[in-house]
Design a protein that fits this description.
Chain lengths: 615, 348
């Protein structure tokens, strides 16, 4: 039988199953195959905070969405064209996102009476017309896998566990993915359990062959490689890119990297990644708590290292006092906040942009801190270097605001040329700087940057004491003088206000748009995709995206005032909008959804069009 | 590395040939403790002790938290970091772990170390970072003007406890031993000779040394340690701990009961062979812990000196060894290799 091959320009697949079903691994492997094939892609993992929520329940559903195309794309996609549902819970939890006509590949073995009841299905939706709107492909994934592995010396449980590889094999056939790398991956992952490795590879091949031979699937699909800019690419998730960026920053600064961190979702992967790279003179310190993590990082900075701490919102709250100490002692420090849904514990695995005002103001006293926010997973690499540049040049703590969407989402990354990375090295103080040639003034500032000297222990002749008590200008001695305090408050503010940040760039191809859509951080992809849609439909809209939130680019006010309307989508209740209105007296139009999920391009396109259409 | 450094707390800190005196370690800042405060005596003892170490002054760092004692770094002409309440052990850990060439001293008090900063203290002790922690214990909150502290006796009448405090106090020595400390000592502000002898051993110890210093707050808790200072009493109740020596005061001796616990008896009533001989180097912490409990009831008899001094690898050495091992086994990291380390593909 010759099967039909259909050409597509893009596909969105969502793998969904129980949190123990291995959906993240399945998604990762499909992503790797797709990257190798040369499509552009973007991914969105979505999983519960519970490691193993009760099996078969709605809270236990874990999913992985992948958008891939023959052209460059900006988001993991709004709505899946294909849902792989490993059980009734996975079907029920994701059905609402499926557009009419989408494909559903369902594991019928798991659609038992008991599993159906767990999620409130009175009847099996695969057997009635409940799914009539969609194209349903019932596949006995579990029993087919077990049958394929009946000659293997493994337990029935282990055989059943390989069903995700069967599903991966089937999807790999369906979309013409290259398979060699997955076989190698399985050999290496289960190197210590060769029987399991062989069984998983057999399940993977069985899935492929099932697609090839069964009549259940009459069509397979081809999505041609995307035409991306020439270069060497790899797929990368935000947390990994951020960790690489921190290492690159330490290399470019010629300083050892010291990470003080306490495990917290969704930031822990940065700690895990950095701990693997000790040969870059990286020291990772898993502290007893969030406060000790940042304290140790600041202590290392005092000693002349690039001190970094990584956390999420609850951790930032705990670190606030130490960040204030870094503001006061004017030492370099990078605080990475991988934002998650709050307040309090909130929804640890879900994304949000709700820590902006905490980053700006969440400390006692006048305590300005620069803020940098990456816009895509791979941009986390460059944003980390930029945060380090500011921290080192201006001797200040810097907040790097990533979020759960960037942290776990991935995209192909065109690797930068190492020679193009900026030199961010700075000089330590080496000798007294007082006019008498003998005194050292730890708070005598560089007239241009207002940075104070970084004088590290071990340097003779400039022994000095710093601390959290107000300093006398210049000498750094304890001072309660009212005018000195006023001066120092203003100097610390002026230093941050004077940080050199590039101008805000506006993308307005037509040149006559009257509406600007502005964003910051991880909303870049959905906003840019929405802007494309609007323009494609004939709408005129300009787009600008802020990477520096403090200080803002010098031309920000001019850009805002140049448009009749400024639309600002944020995954919070309007935190940047509050800052912009206060600062520039421009009444930006806020669009806010705080659902723990990224915006959808279609949703934003509608909002942009509404703003364009309104008077 | 580990074996060679054991017991050599300052082996990696550069030495100087220049002759140093107490004056070299005095900063230009006016000392601002209350007249009569025990901190003056400790400062003078430390300033006159530091030249003895023969270290390059720029390689010495004093880190403190918040409290009266935490002003200490301002008065020493070394590098200093007056940080925030309770966090000095954490900050010092980052410094010492990344700079083994520094002699790092943490100055803290009973509130700073045992209340707000208790977590950092116990974790620094178990990790065995190369730090010397001097815990000034005055059994009261001084800087906030006189509330009870985690070492105040039960029933303490203070501004915040007009009907008496309810909490059972910490015994800092017991706490430190329980937290896997490798070096634990106790001394008294007014006994400079003893204080310096304990500092000497603490400095020589590689790893975290905790030294509790009984320090009199003459404003809010005067005479808290009076029995140990009263010439008529002190020799009778002070049990001086010296490794390898019988544990005795002028009139008392420590004996082991049949059940293994310790008791303090009249020295005259026991045979010399029955007296417990101090073994600070015993890997088993039982004796050191039992000794730490001998000050119950309150000041009936108080051991001072080094309770425990055992050798185990320090955190900073082991951290450096992992960096060395990773570099030796796989070569120094190259950024281009790192970026190319995953599955890559080329688009031309």
């Amino acid at each position: 039988m010759t099967k039909q091959v259909q050409q597509l320009d893009r596909v969105i697949i969502r793998f969904a199953g129980d949190s123990g079903d291995g959906m993240q691994l399945t998604g990762d492997r499909f992503t790797a195959e797709t990257a190798e094939f040369g499509n552009d892609l973007s991914t969105l993992p979505n999983f519960p905070a519970e490691i193993r929520a009760p099996a078969g329940t709605l809270p236990g559903v874990s999913s992985f969405q992948l958008h891939f195309a023959d052209h460059d794309i900006l988001t993991p996609g709004d709505a899946p064209n294909v849902l792989v549902a490993m059980n009734p819970a996975a079907l029920k939890a994701n059905l609402g996102d499926l557009p009419r006509g989408a494909d559903i590949i369902a594991n019928i073995d798991e659609f038992t009476k008991r599993n159906l009841q767990k999620v409130g299905y009175d009847a099996n939706p695969l057997e009635n017309d409940a799914l009539a709107e969609w194209r349903v492909h019932p596949v006995a994934l579990t029993s087919l896998t077990v049958k394929a592995l009946e000659n293997f010396e493994i337990s029935k449980k282990d055989a059943e566990r390989a069903k995700n590889m069967f599903a991966l094999g089937l999807l790999s056939w369906l979309y013409h993915r290259p398979v060699e790398a997955t076989v190698k991956f399985l050999e290496s992952k289960f190197a210590k359990k060769p029987d399991i490795a062989k069984a998983n590879i057999a399940a993977f091949n069985a899935g492929w062959n099932y697609g090839e031979t069964t009549e259940a699937f009459s069509v397979s699909y081809e999505i041609k490689p995307a035409k991306l800019a020439p270069g060497v690419y790899r797929n990368i998730a935000g947390n990994q890119a951020l960790a690489y960026g921190l290492i690159a920053a330490s290399v470019q600064a010629k300083l050892p990297l010291f990470l003080g961190s306490y495990p917290i979702t969704p930031a822990s992967d940065i700690l895990h990644e950095l701990s693997k790279h000790k040969r870059f003179d990286v020291r990772t310190f898993q502290a007893e708590d969030e406060i000790a993590g940042v304290g140790a990082a600041l202590g290392a900075s005092f000693g002349g290292a690039l001190g970094v701490t990584t956390t999420s919102g609850p951790g930032v709250a705990l670190k606030a006092e130490t960040v204030g100490l870094a503001v006061m002692t004017e030492l370099p420090l990078i605080l990475v906040d991988v934002q998650r849904a709050g307040p309090s514990t909130g929804m640890p695995t879900k994304t949000e942009q709700t820590d902006l005002l905490m980053a700006m103001f969440g400390r006692n006293g006048e305590s300005p801190v620069p803020i940098v926010a990456p816009s895509t997973p791979s941009d986390c690499f460059h944003a980390a270097i930029e945060a380090a540049r500011i921290a080192l040049k201006y001797r200040t703590p810097v907040m790097l605001l990533s979020d759960g969407y960037l942290a776990n989402g991935s995209e192909p990354w065109k690797l930068p040329e190492i020679d193009d990375l900026p030199d961010i090295s700075v000089d330590f103080a080496t000798e007294p700087n007082g006019e008498d040639g003998k005194t050292f003034l730890p708070y005598k500032r560089d007239p241009e940057t207002l940075a104070r000297p970084w004088a590290v222990p071990g340097t003779p002749g400039i022994e000095h004491r710093i601390g959290g008590i107000e300093k006398a200008d210049g000498s750094g001695n304890i001072s309660y003088d009212p005018n000195n305090h006023d001066l120092m408050v203003r100097l610390r503010q002026a230093k941050v206000d004077g940080i050199d940040v590039p101008d805000l760039e506006v993308d307005d191809p037509a040149g006559d748009a009257r509406v600007l859509v502005l964003g910051w951080g991880s909303t870049y992809g959905p906003i840019a995709a929405a802007v494309r849609r609007v323009r494609k439909a004939g709408g005129k809209v300009a787009q600008a995206h802020l990477r520096h939130l403090n200080p803002l680019p010098a031309n920000t006010g001019d850009v805002l005032r140049a448009y009749d309307k400024v639309l600002l989508p944020e995954i919070n209740l309007g935190q940047l909008a509050l800052l912009l209105r206060a600062r520039f007296l421009v009444d930006v139009i806020s669009y806010n959804r705080v659902r723990g999920l990224p915006f959808k391009a279609e949703e934003l396109a509608g909002v942009i069009q509404d703003v364009i259409d309104s008077d | 590395m580990t074996e060679t450094l054991n017991g050599k707390g300052l082996a990696l800190v550069p030495k100087t040939d220049a002759k140093q005196t107490l004056k070299d370690f005095k900063s230009d800042q006016e000392v601002r403790w209350c007249p009569g405060c025990g901190d003056y005596a400790i400062l003078a003892a430390v300033q006159s002790f530091l030249p003895e170490l023969g270290l390059r002054r720029e390689n010495i760092v004093f880190v403190s938290g918040i409290g009266c004692s935490s002003r200490f770094p301002y008065y020493l002409n070394t590098y200093g970091f007056h940080s925030i309440h309770g966090r000095a052990p954490a900050i010092a850990t980052g410094l010492a772990a990344s700079r083994p060439d520094l002699s790092v001293w943490v100055i803290t008090g009973d509130g700073d170390a045992l209340s707000i900063g208790g977590n950092h203290l116990i974790h620094a002790l178990r990790r065995n970072v190369n730090l010397n922690v001097l815990l000034f214990n005055n059994r009261i909150y001084g800087l906030t003007k006189g509330q009870y502290s985690p070492t105040s006796e039960v029933g303490k009448i203070t501004k915040s406890t007009p009907m008496g405090s309810l909490d059972k106090p910490f015994n800092p020595i017991s706490l430190a031993i329980g937290a896997e400390a490798s070096f634990v000592g106790r001394t008294i502000d007014s006994d400079r000779k003893h204080l310096q002898s304990v500092l000497r051993e603490a400095a020589a110890h590689r790893g975290t040394s905790l030294v509790e210093i009984y320090q009199n707050c003459n404003i809010f808790n005067d005479n808290a340690f009076e029995p140990l200072k009263d010439p008529a009493l002190r020799d009778d109740i002070t049990l001086r701990l010296e490794h390898g020596q019988p544990i005795v005061s002028a009139i008392k001796a420590v004996r082991r009961r049949a059940d293994g616990t310790l008791e303090v008896v009249d020295r005259a009533s026991v045979d010399e062979s029955e007296i417990v001989v101090h073994d600070a180097h015993n890997p088993d912490p039982s004796l050191a812990f039992a000794l730490s409990r001998l000050d119950e009831p309150w000041f009936a008899h108080v051991p001072i000196g080094v309770f425990r001094s055992v050798q185990r690898p320090s955190y900073d050495e082991e951290m450096a060894a992992q960096v060395d091992r990773a570099t030796t086994e796989r070569g120094a990291g190259r950024l281009s290799d790192l970026l190319m380390s995953g599955d890559t593909w080329r688009i031309s």
